[in-house]
Amino acid sequence: MSPRLTLEPVDNIPSDSQVCHYDELSEDAKEELPLLTVSDGVSVDGSIADGFHNCDLVKSTDYYEVSVV
Asked: Comparing C-alpha atoms, which of 4, 52, 6, 8 is closest to residue 26?
């Protein structure tokens, strides 16, 4: 089963969060990012999900909390 990835916008950034910036993501993850920011729980390839595993938050134009299930 493919992992489901959700990105939720956040306003408060906890000081102990691991933040990944857009330019640090793999090319595959960068391509999926626009879809992930407007959809709830998108099934993605495992290699894309792996690119987000070390991130609590992703910084693009806004900050997004990462959830991989």
From this structure: 52
Segments of the chain with pLDDT less than 50: none
How many whole angstroms separate alpha carbon 48 and alpha carbon 51?
Answer: 5
Of 45, 48, 53, give the one whose Cα is nearest residue 20.
53
H/E element holding 45?
none
Task: State the Cα–Cα distance between residues 19 and 1, nearest whole angstrom.
Answer: 27
Give the pair of three-digit tokens for residue 39.
């959809």
- What are the backbone angles phi and psi of residue 60, rounded to the nearest 5°? -120, -120
In whole angstroms, give the CA distance from residue 10 to residue 4.
Answer: 19
Report pLDDT for 47. Answer: 86
CA distance 9 to 6: 10
Helical residues (DSSP H) of the chain, grouped into ranges: 27-38, 46-50
